[in-house]
Amino acid sequence: MDFSFNNIAAEVQQLSPRAAVVRDSLKKLQGRMNDSTFELADLLAEALENNYPTQLGFADLNAWLEDAELDIRQRQAEQLVQIKYRSEALGIPRETLRHLATGKLKAIFSLDVDRHFGGDKAKYEAAVRGLVAEAPNTKLDALESKVRQQKGIEEEGTVLRSYRMNEEGYENEVKPAIERVKGLAGMGMSDGDAIVEICSDFNAGPDSI
Fold first, then answer.
1. pLDDT (0 to 100) of residue 202
2. What pLDDT is recorded for position 125?
3. Contact between residue 47 and residue 64 where contact means Cβ atoms under 8 Å apart
């Protein structure tokens, strides 16, 4: 059976009505990432919890997102779901977080209680709540630096690299790609972090070596 969303909309509705509703809702929200972070996260979490991609015959979430023509990659989807689960676990109200750019939320909730705090829940909660309180008046690069410190990553762990390329390639390919990723992530993402996102998505793709 051909499971293309575009070719068999009626069959999809019969097979899994809610999966199709979630797909359509994600399409409507994806252009408003900063305004709809938690609505997107709710829908993506539902898709993962109920195995909607598998219900519709896809190998994984990424294949489902691509076939549905959603401008969301699997890593980005997992980060949004992570924000939802971890903020809910700490009881942090959504209204406290809604005014923060998605990039800041991704940075803060990349902290893991077991991996970065040795299971010390009190210390973890204090760190996250502290970062949330500081975030409105802190630039993204400074906030990310604070998160790295909480993770025990020293600033000297960063690297400086320069590359030479032709002007046409930079203007037509590299620059638009960086700006697109920065636009999806929210205000304040650095060019370096955008390049890491692009490379991460490339390396996670089916054609990666």
1. 85
2. 96
3. yes
Which structural domain range is residue 191 located in? Answer: 167-203
Domains contained in the chain, number: 3
Q: Which tokens sit at 19? A: 């999966």
Phi, psi angle pair for 29, to nearest 5°: -90, -20
- 2 in any annotated domain: no
Residue 1 lies in a domain: no
| Same-domain check for residues 60 and 14 | yes
* One domain for residues 98 and 150: yes
Question: Residue 189 CB: number of other CB atoms within 10 A?
Answer: 25
How far are the Cα atoms of 156, 170, 199 from residue 162, in angstroms, in the given order? Answer: 17, 13, 16
Name residues whose C-beta falls within 8 Å of residue 207's C-beta, 6 or more positions apart in sequence. Answer: none
Beta carbons of 103 and 188 less than 8 angstroms apart: yes
Q: Average pLDDT of each block of 10 consecutive residues along the chain (209 residues)? A: 35 57 66 67 86 80 73 82 94 91 92 91 95 94 89 64 84 89 71 85 67
Q: Do 99 and 73 share a structural domain? A: no
- The answer to whether the beta carbons of residues 44 and 26 sit under 8 Å apart is yes
Instruction: State whether 179 and 149 are in the same domain.
Output: no
**d(Cα 4, Cα 9) in Å, to the nearest integer?**
8
Least Cα distance to 48 among 67, 32, 30, 62 occurs for 62
Tell me, yes or no, whether 126 lies in a domain: yes
* Residue 27 falls inside a structural domain: yes
Task: Give the separation between CA 26 and CA 141, rounded to whole angstroms.
Answer: 29
Check whether residue 105 and residue 131 sit in a common domain: yes
